[in-house]
Write a structure and sequence with these properties.
The protein is an alpha+beta fold and 356 residues long. It is built from 9 helices and 22 strands. It is found in: Membrane. This is PPM-type phosphatase domain-containing protein.
């Protein structure tokens, strides 16, 4: 992967076109009318060197109504060839509603603004988590790609832009009378520039690098979850007066406010969640800087709807087996694992694959 270092311390909505594959007729458990196997229309492969030289943007829409389980999120496109770039063997995206109450709270954004390319996944939580994740997808790339200091010190700029994004989210929520005290979102992003990648994240959405090694595609983790099970993260929460407890007979530790509140938080860093900032839940990201090598083939960013029951190796294997349909295959595998391992509950599922 090369050298890595961590710095911790207007347009109309378009639904991605699909065709059903009759040879693989499988159905979603509990939603038998929904065919989970799709083949994206084949498009000409566009290399990173080409699509990184033009402006385009793809972002998930803010849901206005409850969708059916496994429904694909509407994607808004901007820029010439944006739709072709974000399909087939090029950039792969899928964002699926889970099997649960409420709307799809996941969101994503992919933006190319030469010489930079940016992609991120956001996983909302709380009553207004979908609103916070939508704001994050709009504000973070806008602030980051407009930063005139980016070329001088990308790591400093990224950290500062996360701070500005949190401030703007809180301000926007107040203006629109949206309560984000107990609602927020994760953020896992990748910035590509000058043969380097900068990975920054909050929470438990993860990114991996899929690289070629001895004729196989192998995964390299790029992020570590921000959870209360991490001793350093837990220590900060406790120092600020928060409580960390296991709930519902599980081993999962959650963060609670000192004043009893039934809603705990499973992560220790996030956008939004203003009630938890007083007890050490922060929006300061972990940042990793890596040189891009010739063996590096893909960046994969997914919400925990994927990582809860799929391993890094399984995700890399899905890309190796069927690059053309990898995002949907990963979403299908994840859905099936949730059904197998839970009482008919499935989290929202988002997959973004960036070829290098």
């Amino acid at each position: 992967m090369g050298t890595c270092s961590s710095k911790d311390v207007k347009e109309n909505p378009i639904i991605l076109p699909v065709t059903q594959n009759d040879k693989k007729q499988e159905f979603t458990p509990l939603t038998p009318d929904l065919n989970k196997n799709f083949d994206i229309h084949k498009t000409e492969k566009i290399h990173l060197q080409t699509y990184a030289q033009c402006f385009f943007k793809a972002k998930g829409a803010l849901p206005e109504v409850n969708e059916e389980p496994f429904t694909e999120k509407i994607i808004f496109y901007e820029g010439q060839n944006a739709r072709e770039i974000c399909s087939g063997e090029n950039i792969g995206i899928t964002c699926r509603k889970g099997l649960k109450e409420g709307v799809n709270q996941d969101n994503f954004v992919v933006v190319s603004k030469p010489p930079y390319m940016f992609a991120a996944v956001f996983d909302g939580h709380g009553v207004n988590g979908h609103f916070v994740s939508d704001l994050a997808g709009k504000i973070l790339p806008e602030v980051l790609l407009a930063d005139i200091e980016m070329s001088l010190d990308p790591v400093f700029s990224i950290r500062d832009c996360f701070r500005k994004t949190q401030e703007t989210i809180v301000k926007k929520c107040k203006e629109l009378e949206v309560d984000c005290s107990l609602s927020g979102c994760t953020a896992t992003s990748i910035l590509l520039a000058h043969k380097k990648m900068y990975i920054s994240h909050l929470g438990d959405s993860r990114a991996i690098l899929a690289k070629r090694y001895q004729d196989k595609l192998v995964p390299v983790p790029l992020t570590n979850d921000h959870k209360a099970s991490d001793p350093i993260e837990k220590s900060r929460i406790l120092r600020h007066g928060g409580h960390v407890e296991k709930t519902n007979g599980t081993e999962l530790e959650r963060v609670f406010l000192p004043v009893r509140c039934p809603q705990g938080l499973s992560i220790t860093r996030a956008f939004g969640d203003t009630a938890f900032t007083q007890i050490g839940v922060i929006s300061d990201p972990f940042i990793k800087e890596c040189k891009i090598s010739q063996s590096d083939e893909f960046i994969v960013i997914c919400s925990d709807g994927v990582w809860e029951f799929m391993s890094n190796y399984e995700v890399a294997s899905a890309i190796e087996k069927n690059r053309q349909n990898a995002p949907n295959d990963i979403a299908k595998f994840s859905w099936d694992r949730w059904i197998e391992n839970t009482d008919d509950v499935v989290d929202d599922i988002t997959v973004v694959i960036i070829p290098l």
